[in-house]
């Protein structure tokens, strides 16, 4: 029985020392400093992820706007070709589509400028984001040029720009 008691005494002393050591580590200033640093890094990681998600959402909005422009351009071209009969409602549809396209172009231009400002403000060189911005700006310039050409064609056909508020949005 004595060896078992002695073993139990050693085990009790070992457990008491382990608990004391662990509790000392948790209350040490180094431990608290490391925990604070970890928490700070986790908060920063969450902030970076949130900023990344916002940037991706804006880029997706711009690309969606370009898709909307392309769809409206196609519909407008069909309406222009069938507009040779010169009915007033077809002219209004074409003018409304042009106005919608111009609004989307303006929104995309603003969003691209917003992204560029965020990138410049960060002070970091993000080549992937800069490449995406350059691509979006290039597409914006192409769409703007195409819309200006369409507007010139519409002016030849005597179709004036009308405001969206005057007419319902087309599908």
List keywords for this structure.
mainly alpha, disordered C terminus, 171 residues, single chain, 4 helices
If you had to describe this structure to a student in words, what would you say it looks like?
This protein starts with a helix and ends in a 15-residue tail after the last helix. Helix 2 packs antiparallel against helix 3, helix 2 (29-81) runs parallel beside helix 4 and helix 3 runs antiparallel to helix 4 (127-156). 84% of the residues lie in helices and 0% in strands. Mean pLDDT is 80; it is low at 162-171. With 171 residues, it is mainly α. The chain contains 4 helices and no strands.
The largest sheet, given as strand count, sense and whether it forms a barrel, is:
none
Structural class designation: mainly alpha
Shape: rod-shaped
Distance between the termini: 92 Å
Number of helices: 4
Number of strands: 0
| Global mean pLDDT | 80
- Beta-strand content bin: under 5%
> Multimeric state of these chains?
single chain
H/E series? HHHH
- Helical proportion, percent range: over 70%
The low-pLDDT segments are 162-171
Rg, alpha carbons: 33 Å
